[in-house]
Specification:
Distance between the termini: 27 Å
Helix content: 55-70%
Number of helices: 7
Order of helices and strands: HHHHHHH
Shape: globular
Largest sheet: none
Mean pLDDT: 95
Strand content: under 5%
Structural class: mainly alpha
C-alpha cells in the first residue's frame, strides 16, 4: 500500500510514510507505526520538520543505519544520504517545516480550525506523495550520488 493510502486511512504524515516505505522494504514490526506517531504535525504538532520527512528519514535509517556505535562509516554515509535527501525534498517542496508547508500551526486552536475548514489534510497528502517518491529513489540507490 502506498503512503497516501495509509494517510487516507487516517494515519498521520510520519506514520503513513514510514508504513508505506517499510512495506516496500518488507519490514514489519509492532513498533511501526507507533514509533512515528509523535512526529506528526511537525513533531507533536509544533510545526517543525514535516512528519512525512521524518517518517522517510526513519525508513532510510532502517535501510542504511548502523547497528554498532563504532561503525562510524555507516553512520557518516547515512548522514550524507539524509543531507542529500533533505536538500532534494526542500527543492521539491520549498520548505521542510510543517508550518510553512501547510500554512498553519497545528498546536493552536485557530490553526487546527483552519486545517479542518480548509481541508489542509489534502495538501498534506500531496506532501506525503512527494516525500515518498523521493525516498523510494533513495532506498533503491538512485537518489544518493555517494551510493
Amino acid at each position: 500500500m502506498s503512503s497516501v493510502e495509509y494517510h487516507i486511512q487516517g494515519f498521520n504524515c510520519a506514520e503513513s510514510v514510514l508504513l508505506g516505505l517499510c512495506e516496500t522494504m518488507h519490514v514489519e514490526s509492532p513498533l511501526i507505526p507507533r514509533i512515528a506517531t509523535g512526529f506528526g504535525g511537525g513533531i507533536g504538532h509544533t510545526g517543525n520538520i514535516c512528519g512525512a520527512i521524518t517518517g522517510a528519514v526513519m525508513a532510510l535509517g532502517i535501510a542504511f543505519g548502523r547497528e554498532k556505535p563504532e561503525d562510524r562509516a555507516t553512520r557518516d554515509r547515512l548522514y550524507l544520504l539524509v543531507e542529500s535527501f533533505l536538500g532534494e525534498v526542500e527543492k521539491a517542496l520549498g520548505h521542510l517545516d510543517c508550518t510553512s508547508l501547510i500554512g498553519v500551526r497545528l498546536n493552536t486552536e485557530e490553526g487546527l480550525k483552519r486545517y479542518r475548514e480548509e481541508n489542509l489534510r489534502e495538501r498534506c497528502r500531496g506532501i506525503v506523495a512527494t516525500v515518498e517518491d523521493i525516498a523510494r529513489r533513495y532506498l533503491s540507490g538512485k537518489g544518493n550520488p555517494e551510493r
